Amino acid sequence: MKYPFLDLGTVNEPYLPELREAVDRVLRSGRFIGGPEVESFEKALAGLCGADYAVGTANGLDAIRLIFMACVDSGRFRRGDEVLVPANTYIASFLGISQAGLVPVPVEPDAATMNLDTALLESCFTPRTKAILTVHLYGRPCFDSRMVEVARRHGLMIIEDNAQAIGATATEPSPRGTFVTGGLGDAAAFSFYPTKNIGALGDAGAVVTSDKELADAVRALANYGSDRRYHNIYKGLNSRLDPIQAAMLHAKLEHLQECNGARRTLAATYDRCITNPLVTKPLIEAGCVWHQYVVRVHDRDRFIVYLAENGVGTDIHYATPPHLQPCYKDLAHGPLPVTELLADEIVSLPISSCTSVKDAEEISRIINDFR
Ligand SMILES: *Cc1c(COP(=O)(O)O)cnc(C)c1O
Fold first, then answer.
1. CB atoms near residue 290 (< 10 Å)
2. Of all protein residues, whose CA lies closest to atom 6 belonging to ligand 1?
3. Interval 288-324: pLDDT, tens
4. How far is the CA of 328 from the centre of ligand 1 (A)?
5. pTM passes above 0.85
6. Which residue in 45, 158, 281, 322 is a FRET match for 303, CA 20 to 30 A apart?
7. Which atom of ligand 1 is found nearest the CA of 89?
8. Ligand 1 centre from 352 Cα, in Å?
9. Spatial distance between the Cα atoms of 154 and 346, rounded to a whole number of angstroms
10. Atom of ligand 1 nearest to the CA of 62
11. pLDDT tens for residues 87-96?
């Protein structure tokens, strides 16, 4: 591939000296679970979101699951309660809800933004609904006053799946007056899976919240349910952020603005250069951090083969929505035609630091020649 979709070796190359420095520091410290590296990264992450607390976790799925487990174990939610979630998300959003004993209720996306259609929230509400898990899909914030209004009217929590949108900004402020994703709702889950905008060199995640009770519950639950040594108040998990990952993530977090800025420039380049009427481009929004640049093409499979023949790597996020996965064959849901149409038409173009502006111009030229 002349234009690879993503190459994580190349992505991390500019940070090698800083990553080595971070690893060295941890090696010399002899502290391999918890400690100052994790604490200082947590502090930086909470600060970025304008929130009070961050708790490192082993991965993003656990971060989602721990938030919901904390809600159940603290008695705020009961098993079998429902969580509204966009139908067109990565399966981890659904799994995190299910694994806490709650029920994901898929809500259709708005085809224009590909994010949850907040106009549909009210119609999906039942007396068992306890929360909205909003997903900032592809790096585009999904948060507005309509969502806040529905949540307020029914006493729902707003939880953010911020795996794809670190550093993004919403167009409307949260009730606390903040704009940065991860600080908009009652709690947020982050993933630092290596392909995310800020990626670890392995698995890593975090929960961010300004709710002290929730933060304490998540911290205990992630550490065997222990609130102090050898004292277990919950049947918890072992899901902690490793100091070695925290140290490397902290180094990379310092480069967040330039990372996201480069993605914005590539998205603007595609937006300017792709003119093929067979290709529907995503909406450009200032606050979006472009984890993926996803176009829609009717004849998607032929488009992908054509691009591959011309040296352009692509991917699909995601070809099968969670409600069509075998593990959710028993999940009750209404018709989800928008979700299923999107799943058939979406294609992700290269948008990582492996791709230059010149590459994006050339990829656009190749796309414009698709007939
Ligand atoms: C990556 C991702 C997750 C899960 O994160 P992991 O760290 O891989 O467990 C959850 N939700 C979304 C939307 C994601 O993209």
1. 27
2. 60
3. 999 999 999 999 999 999 999 999 999 999 999 999 9
4. 18
5. yes
6. 322
7. 13
8. 17
9. 34
10. 9
11. 999 999 999 9
